[in-house]
Amino acid sequence: MEHPLTWPVGLDALAFGGDYNPEQWPEEVWQQDVRLMREAGVTMVSVGIFSWALLETERGSYEFGWLDRLLDLLHENGIRVDLGTPTVVPPAWFYREHPEALPVSKDGLRYEFGGRGAICHSSPAYQEAAAGITEQLGLRYGSHPAVALWHVHNEYGVPVSACYCETSAAHFRRWLADRYQTLAELNSAWGTTFWGQQYNRWDDIRPPRTTPTAGNPAQQLDWARFTNDAILANFKRERDVLHRLSPGVPVTTNFMTALSQCESLDYWAWGREVDIVSNDHYLVAEAPRNHINLAMSADLTRSVAGGKPWLLLEHSTGAVNWQPRNLIKQPGELARNSLAHVARGSDGAMFFQWRASRFGAEKFHSAMLPHAGTDSRIWREVVALGADLGSLSAVRGSRVKADAAILWDWQSWWAQKLEWRPSEDLDARERADAWYAAAFDRHLTVDFAHPEADLSGYPLVLVPALYLMTEAASLNLQEYVAQGGTLAVSYFSGIVDEHDTVQPGPHPGALRDVLGLTVEEFAPLRAGETVRLTGGGAELTGDVWSEFVVPRGAEPVWTYADGPAAGHPAVTRHTLGDGTAWYVSSRLHGADLDTVLARACADAGLAERELPRDVELVERVGERGRYLFAINHGSAGVQIPLPGAGVELITGQPVGDRLDLPANSTRVVSI
Ligand code: GAL
Question: Which residues are noted in the entry as Zn(2+)-binding (predicted)?
């Protein structure tokens, strides 16, 4: 490829394979593994992710023989390797030497060795040892012909992100000194005059450990930022070693952008540091329509990648083993899930893991090769998927076409989740999910965008949950609307600045001008209480939240008919410059949220799509053509219109301007 650091070296197909942990098996089994990998069409596997204890058996004693043999075997069989740095599980000998590198919880408990990811990211001993094993791997395999991609660590940020030990405390103080320079600045940013929390010496500052009552919110928010930065620094250290020793081979680390799966990392910052963005996604098995969360995670990952293709490094062929009830996937669901990630920009579909383990904590987790062996439904579906992906090589490098953007900011989410908000029912993630689902059900493909990003390419921008907004974000949205954009904002957005300090003047400080209104008083609702919203051609029902909206240029479209804010506008529309800004001041669901969204779409000039509800339609556009991914999640076959004739790539059949989409199927039309 022309851009060597944007794609695994030497991989000339979509990535298909999984985590391969052959160290759990006698070497005779490896031969069978590669034979079956070839049968399934596997193109790349991730190896060595948890192998530190086998590679460095005591400090400085290395045993690379098995990995040499494994990489050679994979290479001889044409399977590319995503090679892990095993720094997510330091060996037992490391903790014997450095028990202080085990992380400490918020309430002072020191975690033990015996699981995984027990790391204090501020520990100099950990940092040195991790860089050391990475250096050894880089030296030995930096130019090995099998190595296509480096996989640093595993899912940074889980299962433990912050460590509250004394070493971390000292590191936090250095980070704060860098951020604020003076204690006066820090005291002002943290609002320490409240509850007498003034600091006169840097040494008095601690991590926000368990306090008798609500802790200082600005301190907690900075702690979350510090934790993200400390972990990111460790990624960068390993990445830089690999760039030096393995030039030309891209470096990734697997994210978990689904908002339910990793909360502690600001992936906007991480996306800028990796060569290739990669992601892991696991369905919430029991959730109805869980493919919507899959789509959301894929869209978020692509957005973190700046729209470039990304890689799905892990999902499951069937049940996981860590949810309360681990439901299997229905026939066909495996392919629909994998291809939905590809539709939304992944240039491959990889799994955890290749062969189901017989021992250890994850022995009941599904795999590409299940305990049942090859005479199994899962294996047959895996082989079929390999063939499907083989026929989709042409989509590689193409880009997803989005209709709208949703603003998302991890830092705002961290801030909103802190204690003592006006209602415990205010839930940023719930609103992000709800608005995303509403867009999904209108068949809109959305990008996610940082609030300060250039939004000018989007006719519609949705803001479901943006409690914290900087001045730059506020100006960005004003400019976006004034230039002709359509904005739709949900309640409790634009309330505080980056220090969790309420913006001066009436709420919502950062959005007053663009929305053309002020909020005189918040009026949260009782548990289960609903309010009626009238006007706008249809009566709507809200719950959780209402407020005293005072229009200052905005036009009321729906008004509260009852509840504490009766008589106040509930949903408003404001014209500013060439654009329009909608405000929704109560929590709306399903069809009611859709009613308002439909109005915003009309303002944005986004036409309705006549498609069945359970059909997902996403377009990727590349130099060689347009690829329309149509996924039918429903149990009945349907026919959908196409914008032109073409060839269906999975079946190889020509298609006209209508496409038959059988139940539970995926079709990809090259137009
Ligand atoms: C992932 C992890 C894998 C495996 C998998 C099981 O989060 O990276 O190592 O544990 O979950 O679902």
Answer: 120, 163, 165
Q: Is 151 in the pocket of ligand 1 (CB under 6 A)?
A: no
Q: Does some domain include residue 32?
A: yes
On whether 293 is known to bind a ligand per the annotation, the reply is no
Asked whether the predicted pLDDT for residue 602 surpasses 80, the reply is: yes
Q: In this predicted structure, what is the pLDDT of residue 624?
A: 87
For ligand 1, the distance from its centroid to the CA atom of residue 19, given in whole angstroms, is 9
- Asked if the model's pLDDT at residue 651 lies above 70, the reply is yes
| Per-residue pLDDT reduced to its tens digit, 544-573 | 999 999 999 999 999 999 999 999 999 999
For residue 609, being part of any structural domain is answered with no
Q: Is residue 179 part of a domain?
A: no
Residue that is last in its domain, among 397, 425, 441 = 397
Contacts of 116 (CB under 8 A, 6+ apart): 50, 88, 89, 159
Q: Are 361 and 476 within one domain? A: no
Domain enclosing residue 641, as ranges: 615-670
The H or E element that residue 346 is part of is strand 346-351
262 annotated to bind ligand: no
Pair 254, 154 in one domain: yes
For 159-181, letters b (16+ CB in 10 Å) and e give ebbbbbbebbbebbbebbeeebe
Same domain, yes or no: 500 and 624: no
State mean pLDDT over 237-254: 98
If you take atom 4 of ligand 1, which residue's CA is the nearest one? Answer: 352
Which is nearest to 274 in space by CA: 438, 413, 156?
156
pLDDT band at 19 (very low <50, low <70, confident <90, very high): very high
> Cα(352) to centroid of ligand 1, in Å?
6
Output the pLDDT for position 621: 98
- Which atom of ligand 1 is found nearest the CA of 321? 12
Residue 462 domain-assigned (yes or no): yes
Judge if 479 and 528 occupy the same domain: yes
In sequence order, what are the residues at sequence separation of 6 or more whose Cβ sits closer than 8 angstroms to the Cβ of residue 95? 101, 102, 113, 118
- Which distant-in-sequence residues (6+ apart) come within 8 Å of 496 by Cβ? 415, 467, 468, 469, 502, 503
414 lines ligand 1 (CB under 6 A): no
Q: How far is the CA of 365 from the centre of ligand 1 (A)?
A: 9
The closest alpha carbon to 595, from 555, 539, 547, belongs to 539
Of 344, 368, 397, the domain-final residue: 397
Both 392 and 408 in one domain: the answer is no
CATH number, domain of 459, equals: 3.40.50.880
Q: Residue 49 is part of a domain; what is its CATH number?
A: 3.20.20.80
Pocket of ligand 1 contains residue 190 by CB under 6 Å: no
Verify whether ligand 1 is closer than 6 Å to residue 238 (CB atom): no
Best residue among 49, 278, 314, 337 to mutate for probing ligand 1's pocket (most ligand atoms within 8 Å of CB) is: 314
pLDDT tens-digit series, residues 325-360: 999 999 999 999 999 999 999 999 999 999 999 999
Gap from CA of 362 to ligand 1 centroid (Å):
9
Place of tokens 């991914």: 629
Determine the atom of ligand 1 nearest the C-alpha atom of 49. 9
- Which residues carry out catalysis? 155, 314
Q: Candidates 323, 350, 352: which one to mutate for ligand 1, based on the most atoms within 8 Å of Cβ?
A: 352
Same domain, 125 and 256: yes
564-595: burial string, b at 16+ Cβ within 10 Å, e else: bbeebbbbbbbebeebbbbbbbbbbeeebbbb
Q: Given a cut of 80, is residue 280 above it in pLDDT?
A: yes
Identify the pLDDT of residue 1: 39
Q: Do 510 and 540 lie in a common domain?
A: yes
* CATH code: domain of residue 663: 2.60.40.1180
Quick one: average pLDDT of 211-238?
98
Predicted confidence (pLDDT) at residue 259 exceeds the cutoff of 90 = no
Count of structural domains, the chain:
3
Same domain flag for 637 and 514: no
